[in-house]
Each structure stands twice: as structure tokens, then as C-alpha cells.
Amino acid sequence: MDHKEEYHWTIEAKASLFDLKLNEVWAYRDLLVLLVRRDFVSFYKQTILGPLWFFIQPLFTTIIFTFIFGNLAGISTDGLPKPLFYMAGITAWNYFADCLTKTSTVFKDNAGIFGKVYFPRLIMPLSIVVSNLVRFGVQMLLFLLMMAYYYLSGAIFHMTSAIFLFPFIVILMALLGLGAGMIISAMTTKYRDLAFLVTFGVQLLMYATTVIYPLSEAFSKYPDYAWIIAYNPMTPIIETFRYGFLGEGSFSWGSLGYATAVTTALLLFGIVIFNKVERNFVDTV
Amino acid sequence: MPAIKVENLSKAYQLGQIGTGTISRDLERWYARMRGKEDPFLRIGESNDQYTKSESDVVWSLKDINFEIEQGDAVGIIGRNGAGKSTLLKILSKVTAPTTGRISGKGRIASLLEVGTGFHPELSGRENIFLNGAILGMRKKEIQRKLEEIVDFAGIERYLDTPVKRYSSGMYVRLAFAVAAHLESEILIVDEVLAVGDAEFQKKCLGKMGEVSKGEGRTVLFVSHNMGSIASLCNQCIFLQNGLVKDFGNAKDIINHYLASLKNTNKVYVNDQFSDLPIFTRVEVMTSEPGAIQLNGKDLKIEIDVYMPKNLTGMAVSIQIMNENELPIIFTYIFDTSQPILRDVGIHKLKCVLPKCKLYENNYYLKVHLAESKGKTKFQEIDNICAFQVQMPDDHIEWGWQKDVCIYTEKFEWEISSANN
């Protein structure tokens, strides 16, 4: 008699690479919500300023960028008010960078809990991305306040219909950070070297993205090398973001489509290698 | 049809440093796989004996395990430390994947490998119940429905909205166990986590687990060193030894088999392999009676030979006397700093006498350590050697000597006076 079909589950030495276990993730969706809540609540406990801390970092970065890159180095901001230009870039970049760096250490940070209980491991990086969304939301609020201030004081900028792409852009940033972060996290469980590169690499990557300069400026000053910047998938995202909210920036459906394609590819690859490593990482961490 | 079926299950671990030199090894492995050959670093046949040095640094924590568990059975998993018990539970809980083989099963698994996994100290008891429950795989609705029962079982009603960092360790354990025990799973896996709670709570937990398996027909797998709890809870037992299933069957029989296997180790430990490091060459327990039997109240002698390959100062030797539940009862040591020992090259003989040893009747064995205290170097640690049995003197006390009434006896005096004066 063959009863194999009646078993609900099997644990095997080798699992299929392309079983993404997404249905399992869905079954644990309540856990995702609770983890996000935990991050949020535990962040505020025993702080005086609470969510105000979310403001301080982008605010100071904007001030410093305005002085150094705007005034001292005199890099063009496409005619936009400098703080507004930088704030747009920083807000978007920070979200991506947070998703990337936090996801990249997910195995190391959760070794304790991963070693003791099973749940779909993907929940953890997902919860990081969603938790960061809260922080991003608060920083967006700051950005909108700043827009209102500049609007009232008569600065020239205008929103474009590309603003309706905003939700899509946020998802794109989240998934790009998630995908890249998962690849790094999977590669660092055994060889920690890469972990040192991440913080440093993210910083460098920012300069290869149009955070502190517009893409048009890169093309006019370094026409031969600007393709590096244009092929960075974060560039179209930030350019679209700026174009939508401030009306300046190089927006094209083609480049946004390219960013989407890269994101999808990285994400799928990320999930596959994350799931592969997850099965045995407890033994090597 | 069994609830859990384990087929040819093996798990290999790599010993030593991970990370250095593993790239070249990974490449070698990959190359071997490409040619369709066996992994050069995974040689089956190497046994997992912690006390002998093996040539390969891959160790098989579980080796080709096969067994089936019927639904509703309460199965105890017993064996010495390092026998593979925890590895088996980890694989069953899907925390780590097996190296070869497969497990098939029916129904949801709730596993409690550690108390309070995922508890966040800043969150309240209530929030942690939800978080912990969700980590274990419960839906929010399910937890909501069980909340009252969980709180009731844990007895933390008054503290429900207090952060768990303010809980006593007992409350913490109670809450954690309560959440796992109330998960509607077909299979419950419990590692030795109950040891943290107090006796009353342990009883309550065992009661709950018994209720789960007998009353609700759920399957329970339980690891413990406490044969008493295993005997009272489990109807089936798996005895693991060096990564192999040594015996499987009726709990009472297997427990007796396991306890007998502890006794049967030789009362003399001899090692004739010298190395360039200090090493025990012989450890022998000299019991008061022949046949490795020690009478309570008589002197117990332990003789130790140590080989020193070079001149060293700061050596230290220590002995632990452990009982059959792997509980250390006596610890004694000698340090070079207080009395010169083991300073010269060659074999040294040490003799330790415990005058009028008052161990209670039970089975005991030794664990010996050889170390150098200045550099904090541990040269050798040998566990589970020189088994002996303590018997109580044959003076007929009224009730006879009951098992496990104590682990140690002491001289005592009663003073009698009358309240009428």
C-alpha cells in the first residue's frame, strides 16, 4: 500500500530551488503584522523624543548636503530649491538603504530565534521592509511639510502626474532593497567578509545614484561614464520620485521599466538563494 | 499509518572553525559533485563518539535513523549528552535540514525547543502571547480564542499588561509553555525546557502534556534527562546512542535498558595513547566492596594517572561525581598553586580519598578534567567513566531505603524533650 499522498508534509535533505514557499508566508501573515508592531513599539519605549528621531537624521543630512554639495561645490539642482532637492533624494535613498542594510544582516541578527523555532524565514526580511515603511512615512511627512513651506514662500516647482507612480516606486524601492539585501544575507552566513562591505558599499552606491545631483548634470559633465549612473536601478526610481513631486528630473517609461525588470530579477534570485541558505544556516552561523 | 515516519535520516556537522579554509573546501566539494562523486568531506561510517578523536572534522550527529511514531503516542527521547537528541528535535521542528533522508508526517507541529523564543522584554505579557503564538504558527483569531485559557494556565492574570522584563523567571517560563501547549497542533515537541520552572509547575506541565497526548490524541515527543518524567508521561521511548537508534519500544523497558547501559561502563578508564599534550592514562574508582559497589559511609578512593610530556606548572585536576540523571553531586579538585603537582615529565599518580563518602544509593559515574590554570588551557575532559553503584548499609530501617529520597546523607542528631515540663 502506498500512503505517501496522505502525509501532510515531508522534510527532506534537498528541496526544490524554485519552491518559493510563498503560500507559507501568506499563512503566517499575522506574524508579519505582529513583528512590525513589535519593532515599532520597542523603538519608542524609553525614548523621550520618540518618532522625532526619524526627523533628525534626514534634516541634518539635508542641511549638510545643502552647504557642501549645493553651496561649496556648486552642483546644480535643476533649478529647484536646494534643500528640497536633497530632501527628496535622501528620503527615497534612506528607505532603500535601510531596507538593504537591515535585510543583509537578517540571519545574523535573528540567529537565536531562527535556531529555536521554524516559521517561513522570509517573514523576517519582509517585516524589516514593512517596519522601515513606517519610518519612511514619517520622513515623507517632513518632506511634504518642506514642500508646503517652499510653496508658500514662492519657490518654483510643480507636481506632475508622475506622482501617481509614487506607490509603485515605494514598492519598487522596498523590493529592490529586499532582493539585494537577501542575496547579501545569504552570502554572509558562511563568509562574513561581505558584511563589512555593505555599510561602506551602500555609502558609495549613494554617490552612483542621483541623490546629490540630477542625472542631466551627470550626462553633461561626464557623458562617457554617466551610463553607470543611468544603469543603476535606483537612479530611475529617484528621478521619477523627484519628477513626480517637484517636476524636475529625467523620467522615462523605459528607464522605469528597466528598474522594474532588475528589481524583479534580483528579488526572485534573492528569494531562491535565501530559501536555500535558510535550511542549514543554523549549523554555520 | 504512522503520524511521523523517519527514513534514513542523517545529519552531519562540521567541527572546528567554520569560515577559514572553507572556500577551498566548498570548491572541492563542488568539484566532486560535478564529477558525480561523493562529497569528500562526508564519509559515512565515522561514529559520533565525542571522546575519541576522529580523523575527519565532520561528525555525524545522527546516522541513518529509522522509526515510526503512531498518532497519540507520547514518545520520550533519551540518551547521553551528545547522543543526537537535540539534533533530532531540531530537524523535526524544521530549524535545520537533514543531510540525508526524509521525514514525513501528518498534522501541524508545535515545538518548544526553548522557553520564550521571540519574547520581547519590552512588550507586555499579552503582546508577547500574540507574538509568540504567531511565531509558533497560530493565527491571531486562534490566539484570541485561547487567550483566556493561556493566561489561566500560566497564572499571570495580574501581570498581563506588564512588560515581561519585569516577570520573575518562573512566570516567564509558565507563560512560554502555556502558549506552546495551547497551540492546536497534532504534534507537540518539547525539549528539556521545563527544568527551569519549579517543581509544582513541572508537574502541571507534565500533566498538560499527558492530557494533550492521552486526552486529545495528539502526538508528543519529549526529551528529558529525568527518567521519572519520561516514565510518567511516555508510553514509547527512543534510546539514542552516538547518533544511532539503540533501542525503540515500550517506555519502561527502554528506560531500564538505558539505565543499565549507564551502569555497564567499566569502572577503570585506561588510555594507552600518548600525545604531546598532558593526558589521563588511567582513572579508576576503588569502591569499598567488590563489583563496583560502594557502601554509604565508607571511604571512596579515586586513582588517577596523568602523563606529562613536558614540564609545566599551574596544572589542575578536577573530578565530578555525577549521578545517573547526569546531575553533578560532588566536585573536588587539586591545583598546582596550592600543592605542587604534575610538574615533571612522565607518569604521575594521584589518589583522592573521600572519607566516609555519604552518597545516597544510586548509580554514579565520574567526569574528570585536566587543565592548566595560568593559560586557561583545557587539556582533557572525560565524561561518563568509572561507573559505580552506592548501596546503603544493611541496617534494617523501618521502611527500607526508598529510592530518590535524597542524593546525599549526613550525620544527624535528634534532641528530644517533652513540652510538658
UniProtKB/TrEMBL annotation, chain A:
It comes from the Bacteria. It is found in: Cell inner membrane; Cell membrane. The chain crosses the membrane at residues 52-72, 84-101, 122-152, 164-187, 194-215, 251-274. One of its GO terms (molecular function) is ABC-type transporter activity. InterPro entries: ABC2_TM, ABC2_TM_bact-type, ABC_2_transport. Residues 49-277 form the ABC transmembrane type-2 domain. It holds the Pfam family ABC2_membrane. GO terms for cellular component: ATP-binding cassette (ABC) transporter complex. Keywords: Cell inner membrane, Cell membrane, Membrane, Transmembrane, Transmembrane helix, Transport. It is a multi-pass membrane protein. One of its GO terms (biological process) is lipopolysaccharide transport. Belongs to the ABC-2 integral membrane protein family. This is Transport permease protein.
Automatic annotation (TrEMBL), chain B:
The keyword Glycoprotein does not apply. CDD domains: ABC_KpsT_Wzt (cd03220). It comes from the Bacteria. GO terms for molecular function: ABC-type transporter activity; ATP binding; ATP hydrolysis activity. Keywords: ATP-binding, Nucleotide-binding, Transport. Signal peptide: none annotated. Residues 42-267 form the ABC transporter domain. Pfam families: ABC_tran. The keyword Transport applies. Coiled coil: none annotated. GO terms for cellular component: membrane. Belongs to the ABC transporter superfamily. This is Polysaccharide ABC transporter ATP-binding protein. It comes from Pedobacter agri.
